[in-house]
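INFO batch 0412 | record 1 of 1 | parsing
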Amino acid sequence: MKKYQDSVQYLVTSELLDYSTLLEDRVLNMLKKHRFGLCLCVHEGELNEELHLLCNSMESREIPLILWPLLSPSKGLYLNKYSVKAYNRYLDELFYWLRERGHQIYGVLVDCEPDYEGPQSNSFSPVLDNIWHDLKGLDKEAFNESIKGFAQIIKKIKNHHCKAIGAAMPFVCNDVLEKSQAWQDYWGGPIVNADWDLLVFMLFGSWFAQMGMNWPTAHYLIYDYTRVIKKFWRSRAVVALGVTTPGTGAETIIYRSPEDLAAAVSAVKAAGVQKIGVYDLKGIIESPDPGSWLVEIKNALPQKPDGGPQLKRQRVNYFKVTLYKGMVALIGRILEQIRDLKIYSKQFLNEFKKL
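INFO prediction complete | emitting tokens
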């Protein structure tokens, strides 16, 4: 597998398919034919014989494998500032399991998000679900304390000779631009400035479309974000696109054809990022022609989504892009003020108790 260390350009994630489906020749041969790596979600309790067989099958076909460890829901599911110890223990279990069976993987993807809360019905946007829960989780002290824990997790992954890959929401780009930590704190922990080999930004155009944008506008926003990502993370930058299936979230809008998704890929390539992932394999496998998705992704040419001579309703709505960016920046400043206020409140209470 080491031959792939610097050459994996396209990945597809699998969170929702069981191992038995992934073991089917039609799936494995498709990934091999089009030279796509697989980013596989592995929950606690799923290190079993089927996974062992899947690893063997992928290794024999030279398909790069990234494992995406998730905790049990009771432990929060994701890595965040409160789950560092639990995540570290699961990584120990995962690497022991791999070592005992002689498997070498390409990398480990670490999804940094707040503790899992189920999706809300009639959601306006999956990103905004459970907003009050996440606001209550803002904690500058816990954030700072977790920086060392995140670094230890990254070091552990690298020490096992695979790439440490972080996954971030696009809002954290504002932290870099504003020299802030607010969006990272809101979204789980100190991910942006950590020493990842690769950093994946989840630029899901379907989420933007669900917030009221048409597809060209959603793709222009992807293009705009990707330019910032390219500027700061250069060769370490990866962009994840989607979604192709509703999954476990509250998505009501998804990409339903490879041609539609290819427009998002073109935007990313036009902005200068060539490493691309797609969420999720389930939607691709369940489509009439799964292989066409991978072909369209690879063959998509760089193209800025400027609307061109299209009908008015199909053009980029630059006002919506500007409004969105302004709101994200404003909310980031408010989040930073909330973080400071909570610190001052703690300090006041501590001083009051001394009286």
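INFO post-check: The chain has one domain: 2-354.
INFO record closed
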